[in-house]
Write a structure and sequence with these properties.
The protein is an alpha/beta fold and 265 residues long. It is built from ten helices and ten strands. Helix content is 45%, strand content 15%. The strands form two sheets. Strands 1-2-3-4-5-7-10 form a seven-stranded mixed β-sheet, with helices on both faces. Strands 6-8-9 form a three-stranded mixed β-sheet.
Length: 265
């Protein structure tokens, strides 16, 4: 299978050397998630998981004024009232889990609104950079629903319970600078600089030791439920594996030879 740029119905996949770039491309619908969106995203995640795929980092961005409005409320065909549990388990959970389990680091560039499950998609990524016009919204309560797609897991851990409760219960916009203050995102940049800044970070991640980066992700996630002693054990086990890697030997050799390391794993 060759890995090259291609366009799906709701998004595009491009490659810039070892950086894979997903561009959400339903701007007229604020890149809202419909049935085809989930199918397209799963196709891309499957491609990213292929051992022969050259990508060492995944950048997610969006066309238009918004990043992702969450569920497409205009795509509620079928039974009414809908079986949301079934929809979540079929579509949303595989998307969020797929991002969390991807074997390469993920970065997301948020250009505008990230609402509902669109915000969950953002929170599932490793590094989040936002333009100054971006905002984040737990919109569920505004239509009498509860936050889903991992929101009640991510937000209390990122922002703290009080701030998470405020966002979820009041259903108000959180501007980019506040999201940075809350610890939800990594960086805020000028709108015109967003694409360049995000790509620079993606390219840097693509040159780094991939397995070490994914181990860091795993350790950060486990720290949220482990005791301190358990976490020390997880660190030790992960460090044993890292110390046996070719990348570790390359890193040490490059340090001694005073040259940039070239990582391959």
């Amino acid at each position: 299978m060759s890995f090259s740029s291609h366009t799906l119905s709701t998004m595009k996949l491009d490659y810039d050397d070892t950086v894979a770039i997903v561009t959400l491309s339903r701007p007229d619908a604020m890149n809202a998630m419909n049935g085809q969106f989930f199918a397209d995203f799963q196709d891309i995640l499957s491609e990213m998981r292929r051992a022969e795929n050259p990508a060492r980092a995944l950048l997610i961005k969006a066309e238009g004024k918004g990043f992702c409005a969450g569920a497409d409320l205009m795509d509620q065909s079928g039974e009414m009232p809908p079986d949301f549990e079934k929809k979540l388990k079929k579509n949303y959970h595989p998307l969020i889990l797929g991002l969390k389990e991807l074997p390469i680091p993920t970065i997301v560039a948020v250009n505008g609104a990230a609402a509902g499950a669109g915000m969950s998609l953002v929170c599932a990524c490793d590094i989040v950079i936002a333009g100054v016009k971006a905002y984040f919204l737990q919109a569920f309560v505004n239509i009498a629903l509860i936050p889903d797609a991992g929101s009640t897991y991510f937000l209390p851990r990122m922002a703290g319970r009080a701030r998470a409760a405020s966002m979820m219960m009041l259903g108000e916009r959180l501007p980019a600078h506040k999201a940075l203050e809350y610890g939800i995102i990594s960086k805020v940049v000028e709108q015109d600089d967003l694409a360049t800044e995000a790509m620079a970070i993606a390219r840097k991640l693509a040159t780094m030791p991939t397995k070490a980066l994914i181990s860091i992700r795993t350790l950060l996630d486990s720290s949220e439920i482990n005791t301190f002693e358990q976490q020390l054990g997880c660190e030790a086990a992960a460090q044993k594996i890292a110390g046996l890697s070719d990348d570790f030997m390359e890193g040490v050799t490059a340090f001694r030879e005073k040259r940039p390391a070239v990582f391959n794993k």
